[in-house]
Amino acid sequence: MTSPKNRRENAWKSRKQNQKPHGEVKSLAELSDEASSGVAGYVNARTDGD
Length: 50
Known about the structure:
With 50 residues, this protein is an all-alpha fold.
């Protein structure tokens, strides 16, 4: 048997209210800047050695 509807709805509401946001989403320009600058020690494979 499934759980009662009100119990399922309350569980869903509590999950929605207790979310942990991951922070600001970066724009495409910021992501491309990171990729081209080699952030975190990684080198962009397309520009390396060509």
